[in-house]
Amino acid sequence: MKEIKDIIRLYRQIDTATHKVALATVVNVAGSSYRRAGARMLIQDNGVWTGGISGGCLEGDALRKANHCIARNRVDLVRYDTTNNDEEQIGVGLGCEGVIDVLLSPIDPADPNNPVNVLEACADTREDLCLLTVIRSGSTTFTPGSMFRYEDNLPLPAAAKTDARAALASGQSVVKKYDDLEVFIEILQPAINVVLLGSGYDIYPLLQIGNELGWNMAVAAGPAAVTAKMKALCQHIYDKNAPIPVDPYTAFVLMAHDYETDKNNLLRAFDSQVPYIGMLGPRKRREKTLAELRHNGRQISERELNRLYNPVGLDIGATTPEEIALAVLAEIRAHFTGKQGGVLRDKEGPIHARA
Question: What is the DSSP letter of 225?
């Protein structure tokens, strides 16, 4: 989501009366690639761009090809074969060993439904969305390069509707062909919300790294503890006793460094539907906290315990606030992607799931 917001931000700064732009979208990957389907870059006709479709090896060529598309006002699908050792191929020596299909689409600023406007309308969603990008079409109903949010009332083939619903259920993007229509069915997930329940100096590395990731960072603290730096790094600041909205992509991190406060915040988290609860401190402190909650009559289910991560963070040997922040945010990311946070060297099979 960060890349999409960066693209939207740049697009809103462009004088479209002076400069024309195109959107490059990775619509399909076969084999290995640094970026996956859904990666994007916004390209101006003056060579300025943001986002990315690879680790830097394809961007220059995509920029040149995008300018050709802008000049002709034509959508084009470009295939980069990084498995090919032909010296004439752009992929020679890149080492990714994959095939990447990139859709280059000139953007019409007068079209309220151009792809950047569609992305902007979806940027702050708090639910999984299905976007359809037309790669090829033999009808005037859907034009190549157009993008729209999936809805059941769209005049799509029945098979396309079935595939879109299946993609939403699985969370996996896919390219599908239907007679005279080929579409990239993309699942767009919200940015992760992280709420830090605490106001000590160690919240700042978490806020800084979280902002770099493009996540929505928030703090729950008393008014007297709120600082100018905290305001600058947070998308939201909650009063420590105020209700905190949660959704399936929200994480709480309990880091008050005060036993009673953390105990009350843990009860508050258990009583909510927040899917991830991280709590600083050793297992001994957790067991003491849980024992007191049970003694006070709070029944704690296995499901609630499964939401609790304590000690919080991946085991990377972190000792400083910055390293701890890295370990915590990495664990949060692993939780929401259903990963275990292990060493990739020891993983069997490819890094990413492949179609």
Answer: G
